[in-house]
C-alpha cells in the first residue's frame, strides 16, 4: 500500500514541489539532495530519466548522492 505522503504527492501536478515532498525522502535526505543541487522533485525526476528509468541505477545514484 502507498503512504499518505505518496498519495498527497500524486494528488496534484508536481509543479515546484520540494524534493522533501517525495515519498521516502524526509528532512535529512532532502537536505542532502538539496546540497547536491537537487532541490525540487522535478530535478530528481530528471535524474531518473537521465538514467533511462533504470530502477537499480537510480537507487545506486540515490545512495551515492545522499548516503541513502
TrEMBL record:
The keyword Nucleus applies. It is found in: Nucleus. It comes from Panstrongylus lignarius. The keyword Chaperone does not apply. Signal peptide: none annotated. It comes from the Eukaryota. This is Putative dna-bridging protein baf. SUPFAM superfamilies: Barrier-to-autointegration factor, BAF. InterPro entries: BAF, BAF_prot, BAF_sf. One of its GO terms (molecular function) is DNA binding. Its main location: nucleus. GO terms for cellular component: condensed chromosome; nucleus. GO terms for biological process: chromosome organization. Keywords: Nucleus.
